[in-house]
Amino acid sequence: MFTTGAEDKHIDALTRIYTKDYFIEHAGMMFRNNPDTEFCLVELEVNRLTMINDMYGLGEGDRVLKTIAGVLTNIFEEVSLSLICRVQADLFAFACPYEKSLVESYIDKIEDRIKMLSIELSVDLLLSFGVYEVKDRNLTITSMCERANLALRSVKGNYMHHIAYFDESMRDKAVQEVEITAKMNAALLNREFKVYYQPKHSLDDERIVGAEALVRWITPEKGIISPDKFIPLFEENGFIMKLDAYVWEETCRFISENQAKGIEVPPISVNVSQIDLYNPNLVETLVGLTRKYAIDPKMLKLEITESAYTESTQQMLNAMDKFHEHGMEVDMDDFGSGYSALNVLKDVPVDGLKIDLKFLSHTDEDNSNKARRILASVIHMAKWLGIPAIVEGVETIQQVEHLKSLGCTMVQGYYYAKPMPENDFVTYMKTKSTRVKLEIEKLFDETVINPDDWWDSVGSDCEPILEMNSCYMLFDKGEGEELGVIRASDSMYEIIGGRENFYNSPYTFNNAVHKDDLERFWAMFEQTNDYHTMGKSICRLVFGGKTIWADFKIRLLEKYVDHRVYFAVVDDVTASMEAIVNR
Fold first, then answer.
1. Burial code of 271-282, b = ≥16 C-beta within 10 A, e = fewer?
2. Distance in angstroms (rounded) separating the CA atoms of residues 418 and 112
3. Same domain, 151 and 193
4. What pLDDT shows up at residue 141?
């Protein structure tokens, strides 16, 4: 049972609940004295408490901690065989009889109270919970707390999953992390970290247009350690900054040495971690390496994940300005993995996009179709914005053919080549003709969608589109009778009575076509079966109860696997058509 009758030395001065020392002593007694009761030990932590202190002062942070202590007190003072404490700072713990649904009901109550406090503070407070079901009572309470904390760490900061239950794999991972941490500095000194290179290929002729430098850890005892075992840990403990700097220098050395031998080397991309952006000497370090090894700055391309753009925006903008001043290019890695991708493209002058084929990883057919359309739209949008895009993770010929159909020009993945040691990469470059051109945009420009070319391709009959008051639309036609509108001119909106009428209509534009004119409307698209023919039709459109006679002239712009893009010029011929009809 929870009590408050302990001496002051066992009571936390701020929250007025038990201290960790008291909890360890009495939880052990509680478990031993009740051998027939199943128990659990739970740790909970407040994320973003530092932000609360920074925004509102230490007083508000203390209020959060007192509130949590009060909630725990209210819940567990009525629970037999329970104990609570403040472990340290923003970390709390409680022990109670174990029944999963009951424990999660306690957690729900705690979170409900904290949500109310979040609303008061206008800050999204997030709690993380780690649960250890007491199965081995021979363990010390400290060891049990450590296991609960391992579970907590696995979901810390995760908005989707905030409760984790301990299993032995977490302990194995923790032991492995301790071993890695103990060896990482010596491994760097002993050059156990090796830089591998994965080529980037042109889909046009399959020649090499670039490469990415990737790190591998090869130990004398265990051989290769997978990057997913050490990179997240290094990002957490800060060692990634030393490792990144090592990879940057190794890459510059590789480029310089091979250029000196007369070997054509393509531009090579290196990763810049988010924590690197907070290094005030970042730009000087990278630029200094290109000077030290006498290589063109464009030969060392930088890849920074989308999350770094969204979470470290100001640092990113400051760094990019300096990189561009020195002739270095910066690509956005993992584009689309976050939630602010379009805002980033609007605000940050990136030089390229890297898109992962996880867009197509869905097994569900509906989601898979959506994913393919999203991928097509991203590639299409990149072309519109004049930003070169490369798709990574390409592993099958089916993916290659699909990407070709979307107009993708550059890819990276196991289908063409795995990451390889530098000697193997040199051999690969010699056997596979490389396309080495610092102005990689040439490859991109060959297929970029240029609006001026679109206008020209429509023909002399459509010259009015070059005028400000012209009416035009871009159609996206699926395999069935579904026609979406990608874009429309202001003049088109005026004809139909405003944007509201346009967008309040069903998504499929053909629903706005008068039912008696649908056959003629669809026949127009059949006329436009290649890039050199024009489809024509006069049809009635109905928007907001208003009927308009529209004279369409359309041209095919792009073919995809399951849809096509058309450009349409529209003339309002309502007056002349009504005069004919009313004769």
1. bbbbbbbebeeb
2. 49
3. no
4. 96
